[in-house]
Specification:
- The structure is a single chain.
- It is built from 4 helices and no strands.
- By secondary structure, the protein is mostly helical.
- Helix 1 runs antiparallel to helix 2 and helix 2 runs antiparallel to helix 3.
- The radius of gyration is 12 Å and the shape is globular.
């Protein structure tokens, strides 16, 4: 908790393995928002919404979360 740098490194490592990992993109977007990196957050949300499966196949909580990005 509270280790934004460590969280960022872990998410970068996950995305280096799989750049289309939905939850890593979502968590990276949230981290960027939390740390004031708005442009990076927008890019991560765009990436997350681009790789997300159709909305009707997702749990409601994930649909709501992805609604923060441009879908």
């Amino acid at each position: 908790l509270g280790d934004d740098g460590g969280e960022g490194k872990a998410l970068d490592a996950a995305l280096a393995i799989d750049a289309r990992h939905l939850m890593a993109l979502v968590r990276k977007a949230e981290l960027c928002e939390r740390t004031g990196r708005t442009l990076d957050a927008v890019r991560m949300w765009e990436g997350a919404t681009a790789v997300a499966p159709p909305r009707d196949t997702l749990p409601p909580a994930l649909v709501e979360l992805l609604a923060r990005g441009t879908w």
